Amino acid sequence: MASSAKDIQLRELKDTVSQLKTMVSEQAGLIRSLRLMIDEKSSHEKALQEQVDYLAQKAFRLIQ
Length: 64
Known about the structure:
- By secondary structure, the chain is mostly helical.
- It has one helix and no strands.
- The chain is rod-shaped.
- The chain starts with a helix and ends with a helix.
- The mean pLDDT is 95.
């Protein structure tokens, strides 16, 4: 009987490990997606800042 209880506990632990591995894999995928989004947003922000800098220089030249 004690062996059976240990077998059940072992199976439950194996299931838990399997679920945790799946969760870690899903979270790693989410992290990759979020990093890509951050990179895209950073690139877009850089392009917008370049436009602002260009327009500010152009406006400053018109004032002088």
